[in-house]
Write a structure and sequence with these properties.
Number of helices: 13
InterPro entries: ATPase_AAA_core, P-loop_NTPase
Largest sheet: 7 strands, antiparallel
GO molecular function: ATP binding; ATP hydrolysis activity
Protein name: ATP-binding protein
Structural class: alpha+beta
CATH architecture of the largest domain: 3-Layer(aba) Sandwich
Keywords: ATP-binding, Nucleotide-binding
Shape: globular
Radius of gyration: 24 Å
CATH topology of the largest domain: Rossmann fold
Pfam family, one: AAA_21
Strand order of the largest sheet: 2-1-6-7-8-9-10
Helix content: 25-40%
Number of domains: 2
Distance between the termini: 54 Å
Length: 462
């Protein structure tokens, strides 16, 4: 569960911006709030919708989250630079580190994890345990420029013996300059050798299993393996797709000719080919082909044979009960987008996820975008998931479906600097205020500045 996100000196974000999911004073739509428990329990919102003009920087918030997730989950190879871009339009910022921090709950713990990085090295990294009105250090890692070494301090960890402490210090000392300590803990399988690091493992669990980022071009994989193992899942997904009038009657996997697929190697990214070669027994690999088809490659437990399955949709004939299979590239862009979103939404509705979705409305009708938001909040009130999206869809600015403290705006000023602010900052915003009209009229900012007709005429006449 995300509580706060802060980003500083990343792409168009120069100064620190914070996205807070702590509720404001509004009493409407109380089912949109996780109620805190205990004396120091903190209420947290279930979602946020972020608006802004094109190139305002709202997507950069999502990109910062994706960067952090990848650095924790995947790490950085030796001698590889860290793929981070600071604010470039200021000399000081361009030569300063990027800072990203999350405050979140994971397995009952409230944690604050963050880091500051340049393309060359990790400058700082920290994890704090928050509770009962205080913060306790789990670890802090600071780069000393004079010695070209790191000083790592461990706090809230109960080591079973001195050997465990020595081992963790050994891992910290051996962590590369371009690698986060959390990523090193995963890579070295520290959990197998050190007990009492629940706070560290819970932070890793949150980034690995809870936090999910869907960009306009990304695919939410896993649907292939799920429908292979459980046909009921296929029916479940198909019914939800049909809920949006896609005309799809089913989703299936059909076995394909692997030799023919391998012949397309020059059309696939090199890293996909390498992953195919590295597959272990019982593992699956999900691949997006250049033509938008989606495949799952399985390596058998019994032998080294590879099996290739293509994800397809089923459509019933209009004059009989016969079924025809459609490749995904035969479906509309909107249906393909729903194929990316719906498995994730079902996971969110049924379990515990923190979803960041950039451009929710991409290729989707406004009614579908609205239904997705409404379903998320109302299909399963017991869900522990959160949904944070960026969008241009102004029809979602409706206080019947979204709270005013869930509405955020990102605006870029004349210097190219992005700032973020909540609708809660505008006073007063009554429960019956037409927020959509106010937004489109520029009352809340974060809309494009369109030059006058004369400017266009002058341009065309040049």
């Amino acid at each position: 569960m995300l509580i706060r996100l802060s980003v500083e000196n990343f792409r168009s974000i120069k100064d620190r911006v914070e996205l807070s999911l702590i509720p404001g004073k509004t009493q409407r739509l109380e089912n949109h709030v996780f109620k805190g428990t205990g004396k120091n329990g903190l209420d947290v919102l279930k979602g946020a919708i972020i608006y802004g003009a094109n190139a305002s920087g709202k997507s950069n918030l999502v990109k910062a989250v994706l960067l952090a997730r990848n650095l924790v989950k995947k790490g950085t190879r030796a001698n590889q630079s860290i793929s981070v871009t600071p604010f470039k339009l200021n000399t000081v910022s361009n030569n300063s580190p990027t800072r990203i921090e999350f405050e979140f709950r994971s397995k009952g713990m409230q944690l604050a994890y963050g880091f500051s990085i340049t393309s060359l090295h990790v400058v700082e990294e920290w994890l704090f345990l928050i509770g009962k009105g205080k913060e306790e250090v789990v670890f802090e890692r600071v780069f000393d420029i004079d010695s070209n070494k790191y000083k790592t301090t461990f706090g809230k960890i109960k080591f079973k013996n001195n050997e465990e402490k020595q081992f963790l210090n050994f891992v910290a000392k051996g962590t590369r300059h371009n690698q986060l300590f959390l990523a090193e803990v995963i890579e070295r399988e520290v959990k197998e050798n050190v007990s009492g690091i629940d706070s560290i493992m819970n932070a890793i669990y949150w980034f690995d299993k809870i936090l999910t980022v869907i960009t306009p071009k990304s695919r939410y994989h896993g649907i292939e393996a799920k429908i292979q193992k459980n046909q009921d899942k296929s029916i479940h997904y198909a019914n939800y797709l049909n809920h949006f009038d896609t005309g799809i009657n089913g989703i299936d996997l059909v076995e394909s000719d692997f030799e023919q697929f391998s012949g397309q190697g020059d059309r696939l990214k090199q890293d996909s080919i390498e992953k195919i070669k590295a597959l272990k027994e019982g593992e699956n690999l999900f691949i997006n082909a250049p033509d938008s088809s989606r495949y799952m490659i399985c390596k058998s437990d019994d032998d080294d044979d590879l099996k290739l399955f293509k994800l397809v949709t089923q459509h019933r004939h209009i004059d009989s009960d016969q079924i025809s299979y459609f490749d995904l590239n035969e479906e509309s862009d909107g249906t393909q987008r729903l194929m990316d979103l719906i498995p994730g939404f079902i996971d969110a509705i049924e379990g515990e996820k923190v979803f960041f979705i950039d451009e929710l409305d991409r290729s989707l009708h406004p009614v579908i975008s609205r239904t997705i938001i409404d379903d998320f909040f109302n299909k399963n009130p017991a869900s522990k998931s959160q949904l944070i999206v960026t969008t241009h869809e102004a029809s979602l600015l409706d206080q019947d479906i979204i709270r005013k403290d869930e509405i955020w705006f990102v605006e870029k000023n004349k210097d190219g600097v992005s700032t973020a602010y909540s609708l809660e900052e505008f006073k007063p915003v009554r429960f019956d205020t037409d927020i959509q009209k106010g937004y489109l009229n520029g009352r809340y900012g974060a809309i494009p500045f369109i030059r006058g007709a004369q400017h266009v005429a002058d341009f065309l006449n040049e």
